[in-house]
Fold this sequence. Notes:
Shape: globular
CATH architecture: 3-Layer(aba) Sandwich
Amino acid sequence: MNWKTAFRSFYYEGAPEPEDIVLPAAETALLVIDIQNTYLAPAPDQRDRWAPFLDRMNKTVIPNTARLIELCRKRGIEVIFARIACLKKDGRDRSLSQKKPGWNYLLLPKDSEESQMVPELTPQEDDIVVCKTTDSALTGTNLRLILHNMGIKNVIAAGIFTDQCVSSTVRSLADESFNVVVVEDCCAAATMELHNKELEIINMIYCHVVSSDDVAGFIRD
């Protein structure tokens, strides 16, 4: 994949190629969004429907994200995790969108096993983990303050779901003037159609969409 020409929407079909991406390690953070146990354990009657998603998660997203985390640690880039988790067991502190019935109804108390990051991506002792009851990891937490306090200007984004929490977070970060890079093969939506379409929508406007193989070449120590 050539990140400079891939995932072009109607708005950017004929636009010039973007400049090379430069990510100074001290000014960059990796944000891993919502890769939690609950999403890898669908109800038995839903496993067939979610089989393509689970296959992508287990064979592509989780292994690639683990490698991306390792790369960032080696190159001095801060690794931050965001996860959906409410503070009250009954979920009274959740946003309205997470209280509504249907797909987005989420009751994940912060200490429950379902709300934890998957074992392959377990945060280390000194890693920052923010809990949110919103789609955007920026608007629902103190992440904005954390990033500013650490002098972070660039955010590498990975996680799920591409068309929901990843997209909402990316848009919020862009609105706050962070430079955002979304790592395509470290993200997933329920279907590849949704995944690819959302990347087309946000690419070039709110972020640059790249592959995990591209990232090492962007980092400057």
